[in-house]
From TrEMBL:
Name of the molecule in the record: CXXC-20-CXXC protein
InterPro entries the UniProt entry points to: CxxC_20_CxxC (IPR026369)
Protein's UniProt keywords contain Membrane: yes
Transmembrane portions of the chain: 44-62, 68-89
Native species: Metabacillus malikii
Keywords associated with the record: Membrane, Transmembrane, Transmembrane helix
Superkingdom of source: Bacteria
Length: 97
């Protein structure tokens, strides 16, 4: 899990998830109030763990004949990827730009 660049306090999972759901809104450290923004690498990583498995499953790996079942499992895979996003997303202090 990512930590604050200034005070090394760990960000909590829900704070990072909310940031990624709201178009990568900058987060503020609860301890020292330093602002942090998502890096471009972090954005690409989140896209890769959410969209790429979904796309691969739906178009290449689907064992189901029914389109709705395939779509439901694809959405489930994307949802699980979204829940894992806070563990891999990368932030940088706003003053380090």
């Amino acid at each position: 899990m990512q930590k604050c660049d200034s005070c090394r306090a760990a960000f909590n999972w829900s704070m990072l998830l909310k940031s990624s759901l709201w178009m990568y809104k900058p987060i503020e450290c609860e301890n020292c109030h330093a602002k942090h923004k998502v890096t471009m690498t972090g954005r690409l990583t989140v896209t890769a763990i959410v969209i790429l498995p979904l796309w691969l499953f739906i178009f290449f790996l689907s064992p189901f004949e029914n389109t709705l079942v395939t779509l439901a499992f694809g959405i489930l895979i994307a949802f699980i990827g979204g829940l894992l996003a806070p563990y891999v997303i990368q932030y940088k202090g706003a003053s380090e730009e």
